[in-house]
User: What shape does this take?
Amino acid sequence: MATTIKDIASRLGVAVSTVSKGLNGAPDISEDLRQLVLDTAVEMGYKTKKMRKEEHKKLVIFVENMEFADEEDFGHDLILGFQQMAYRDNWTVNVVRVNSNFQSREKYSTYMLKHGYSGAFAMGFALQDLWMKQISKTDIPTALLDNYVPLNRNVGYVGTDSDEGINLAVKQLVKLGHKRIAFLNGSPNSWVSDRRQEAYENAIKENGLELNPALTAYGYYVADSARYHVPGMLKAGATAILCGNDLIASGVYEVCEKEGLKIPEDISVIGFDDIPLATEISPTLSTIRQDRLELGKCAYFTLNSLIHKVSISKTMLRPEFIERESIAKASKHSALKESK
Amino acid sequence: MATTIKDIASRLGVAVSTVSKGLNGAPDISEDLRQLVLDTAVEMGYKTKKMRKEEHKKLVIFVENMEFADEEDFGHDLILGFQQMAYRDNWTVNVVRVNSNFQSREKYSTYMLKHGYSGAFAMGFALQDLWMKQISKTDIPTALLDNYVPLNRNVGYVGTDSDEGINLAVKQLVKLGHKRIAFLNGSPNSWVSDRRQEAYENAIKENGLELNPALTAYGYYVADSARYHVPGMLKAGATAILCGNDLIASGVYEVCEKEGLKIPEDISVIGFDDIPLATEISPTLSTIRQDRLELGKCAYFTLNSLIHKVSISKTMLRPEFIERESIAKASKHSALKESK
Assistant: This one.
C-alpha cells in the first residue's frame, strides 16, 4: 500500500498538517523540520501529487568541477547533446551547478524528490563527494559521466574509452622514437583518472618502456599545475608529455616556452578532449578527442534506459587520436639536456 | 571521385559488360569470376544503384553457434528485441545463420555489399572465425554480441557485465559457507569466456579462497560436457558449481543425480542466462540473468549509432543474480565425501 501523509505524521510524531506544510514548502515551519519531513517522505516512498504529475517530465543535469557556459567549455556540448535527445522525448531539462556545500545541505534523493526529477545526469563529480556515496545506493535513475558505480541497477556509466585513447597516443609517440613519455594526469580521487593512470602504465609497459614515477603527476585539470610538475619531468628526461586535458597541455606550453624549449622540436605535447582551444594555440595541439556532443547523447540514452528499467551498466565511446603540430620525432638527447 | 564500372573493368582487365554481369548476378558468367568482380568492387568502394537504394533499408543479424527458433532458445529474445527497435525506424531485418563454411565462401564485406545491408549484428561468433578477423578491420557498421574488437570505430560491443554477475554469485555462495566453488565455463577461444574466467578467478581471490585448476573447465555451452568435468570437480572437493550457461547446469544436475548427490543439500549449482529451462527443471535453478530482450535492443542502439558515425565502443547491461532452489548452505564435508 502506498505511503500516506498520515503514515509520515505518525512516524515523526507530528500533526498531519505539519507534514503537509513540510511537503509543500510552506514558510511557517522551520527549515530543519521541513528537511526532516522530506527525508522521511523519501525514505517511506511517499510522493506528492505535484511530484507524481511532474516526475515524468523533468530531468536534471548536475555539474561540478566543470565549466559549460561558453562553447569553448568542456561541458557545453555534453549538455547540448543531452538536451537535443531529451527534448525529442518531451522532457524538460534543468542544469544545476553543485559543489560540496550544496551536497551537504540536502540529500541527493531528497533533492530529486523535492524537485520532481525523474532522473539525473551527473557530470564532474569526485569519488569522495557526499552525493557520490548516496548515488552509489540510490534508487533514482542516474547517469554518471566518467564515474562508475558497481552493483546498483539504477546507475549507469557514460564515458570515453581512455584506455584506447592513451594507447593510441603512446603508440604514436613510440613510433616517433620517444622513450621517456611523461603523463600529467587530471585529478586524483577520480574514477576516470585512475583508469587513465592504469592505461598509461599499461601502454608504457606494453611498448617496452620503463615506468618512472618522476614522469607522472596529477594536474587537477588546471593549466597552472604544469608549473609545478613539468620542470621535474624535464629533469627526468621527458621528451614528450601526455596531459589529462587540453587546458593542462596549454600550461605545459607556457612552461616549455619559459624553459626555452620549442614544441615540437624539443618536446612533444599531447592533450585530452579536443576542446576548441586545441586548434587556437600555437603550435596546434595533438590530442585524444572525446566527442562530447555524442557523449551527451549517450548519457541521455543511458538515463532514459534506466528510467525504463533497462539497467545499462556502461556506455563507452571510442576516442580518436588527432595528430596536429605539437608532436615530432624525439630529439636524440632529452629535451632539457639539449636546451642547456 | 566515385569508382565506376569502367574502373573495375580496367583493374581486372575484362570487358565492362562482364563487370556488369558480375555485379548484377547474371547467370552466364562463372561463380569464380562473379566473386572476383564483387570482391574488387568492394575493395574499390563501388556500389550499384540497387545497393545504394537499398542500403539504408536493410540490416542483418548473423547467428552462429546459437539456437533462436524457439522461445526457449537463448537467441530468440535477442533477435526479438533488436527487431522491435529496428522496425520502429523502418528497417528491414534479415536473420542469417552462418558457420565456418559460409564464412569461407565469401568475404564479410562482399556479402554485406552484395545484399545491400547497411549494418550487421553478429551473435555467437568465435574469436578464430574468419569473419571475426575481417570484422576487426571492417568499415561496415557492425555490432557484436559478447565480442570486443579494439581500435575499429565501426564495430561496437554489446553484452552483459559478466564480472558483476559472477561476483554476485560467488559472494552469495561464500555467504552460504562454500569454499570450493567450481566453474564450468563456456567455450575457450571466446572473448566472453575469457572475461568470465578472469571474473571467476578475481572473485575467488577477493573472497580469500584458493584457486584450484581442478575446479575449472570449459563446457562449450553443452549440457553433455558436465559428464566429463563434474566427476573431477567433485573429487577435488567442490561443494558448488557455477556454470557458463543454464544448459550446462542442467547437465550438472544429471551427473549429480547419477552420483547420488542431492541438489542443493549436497551440492549447489548456479547457471548463467536465465532461459526458461531454469524454472522448468527441479530444483529450480539459481542463475545469473541476462536480459536478452534488452540486450537485443541495446544491440540495435549500438548498431544504429555506428551507422550514424557515433562510434560506440561498448554497451554493457547489468546482470541480476536470481536465487532459486538450487543453492543452499555448504555441507560440512565436501559433497563427494559425504555421498560415499
Summary: The longest helix of chain A spans residues 191-206. The two ends of chain A are 78 Å apart (CA to CA). The mean pLDDT of chain A is 90. The interface with chain B takes residues 150-151, 153, 161, 164, 168, 291, 294, 297-298, 301, 305, 310-318, 320 of chain A (CB under 8 Å).
